[in-house]
Amino acid sequence: MAEEFYTVPESPEYNAAAIRKIQDTDPVRASTIVNPVVQQMINNTHAVKKQADQNGQSAAAAAEAAEAADEKATEALEAAHNAAQVADQAGTDASNALTAADAALEAITKLAHTIDAVPTQNGSLTYTGGEQSPNWNSYNPETLTIGGTTKGTNAGNYVATFTPKEGYTWGDGTNTTKEVTWTIGRATIAKAPSQSGSLTYTGESQTPTWNDYNTAQLTIGGETSATNAGSHSATFTPTSNYQWSDSSVTARSVEWQIQRASITTTPVQSGSLTYSGLAQSPSWSNYDSAQLTIGGTTSGTNAGNYNATFTPTSNYQWSDGGIGAKTVIWKIGKAAGSLSLNKSNITLNKSTSSTTITVTRAGDGAISAISNATGVATVSVSGNTVTVTGKAYGSATITVKVAEGTNHTAPANKTCAVQVNLFNATLNSNTWAAIRAASDADEGANYWSVGDTKSITINGQVGNFTFSNLSISPFILGFKIGGTMVVLCDIQYNSSVSGAGYFHMNDSNTNVGGWKDSSMRKTLLGNSKTPTSPLANSLMAALPSDLRAVMKSVTKYTDNVGNATGSVAGNVTATTDYLFLLAEFEVFGSRYYANDYERNSQLQYDYYKASNSRVAYKHNATGTAVWWWLRSPNYNNNNNFCNVNTGGGNNNNNAYYSAALLPGFYRYTVKWSNRKVKDDRCKRRDTSQGETPETAL
User: Fold this and answer.
1) Minimal CA–CA distance to 402: which of 345, 359, 442?
2) Residues 578-602, mean pLDDT to the nearest whole number
């Protein structure tokens, strides 16, 4: 196969002036179009020259082969001759091509080895965090050697160097190294950081978290942590590789907040305070001085309500977000009131009809007093003095009250019992209760006299006899109707009658047991029971209830043996009676048929001592005088008791005879006489000697 050689034009034309003009007037076109073409032509010229050199070598080889072939074989002579011709022609062609190439190379090389532009950074670079190299305008690594800083990571300016390679020069003909600055620009931070989430005051230092904050991009400063609630200012400055979106790099301030902590519960008074006379301050629930400032009225002395205020401190707020003061009411309670009276019982009488009560109280509560019976006693108040004035007999209760005061509660009421012993001088105008009160107070003699009367009505069965609305007037040791002393008689009057229920001393004709065991005492008068629970069909049961309510028992000394035992001192003993008959000595003031020792324990009643008549008249026939029983048994027989005969003289009669009754009852004690009685066993038994404790019926 025949070798193919690069064909070189016989007369190549290279217009150097035209190429230089393009380079001078249009460097961009020269660098992008002409210069590459020229470079390619240079390359082609070198290729032609190389091909020519190869052809020359091939021709020499062919000649050698031809010579060798000529020696070896005649038949190869022609081939060698042809080869020699080819080789000669190839050598000629190569020589011509080499001459043309050298001429072209000389012209083109002179144009191509001139560097007219110093390289510059092509485009821009922005910081990425990674290493970057710039792109270059007018940089051909075949003609220039790059040096200096050709790579960088951080934003900023860098300096690269460019040095023409051997055979190349700058457009000014020099080949010195030139420095070229290239840049990596700062990356842009789109927006400033902002606080992420919220912080609430805890009492400890706190640091916020941030949105859009990267420590590689920004340097934080200012207040980066704080303890107290409020607004705080941090600063953010771009680092060397970053800038704000407006290309500035100065610090920017960003506000961040610590919110106030919430107080969920308003303070309230803890426990209670009671007035003490001293200044006091309350204790508080839900109060922390670190959270709240207390104000308003924080202490007080008097009882009442006070207003304290609570204002959140700078790190706190109320649960509704408010920070204003809240008013809280606290209280000092009133102390327990006290009340005392210097008297709890008062007795008013004729000599002392008015008296005062001194009231002692705690505090200043108003004092008042009332009487529950103004007809008995009235009351008035002046300051702390209560004046009680008696009006009439009776009992009253004075109730003293103290109202609630400034610092004390109203105490419990106190009472004072008042007994008023102011009696009507007319006996009949007084109640039996008043008459008894006069007795209890030893006041009877100051109002009434022997013989004064008090009307009563007798109703009911007494023994076998029935009284129906019998109006009579008991008197002090007497019994008068229309000025006549009457006695009670049954239908068997002046008859001997055995059996129960008659107005006789015993149900049989005996005085055994004396007064004590007589049926008169126990059954007919009813002394076996009491006035409040009287024996049925007894005289006691027939008396008005208001009279029975005030009747008192009385101790009477009588011969309680009888049975003809004679005048024996030991026979005279005591009985306790409510209704009783009079004794012989009590009426006559002398002894006739009674045990002589009875009078040692008895006194004659002043009524009879005053020579008042002893004649009595029948209650239902007041013109008829009757004889009436005495309680003293006859000392020397066994069947008689003493009596007062129809003429008022002394006598005795059989025990089973029905006779008139003139019983007495104990109502009050009146010292009727100053007569002295010799000291005997009766006195030693604490009897009421010298006193006459009864009214006679």
Assistant:
1) 359
2) 97
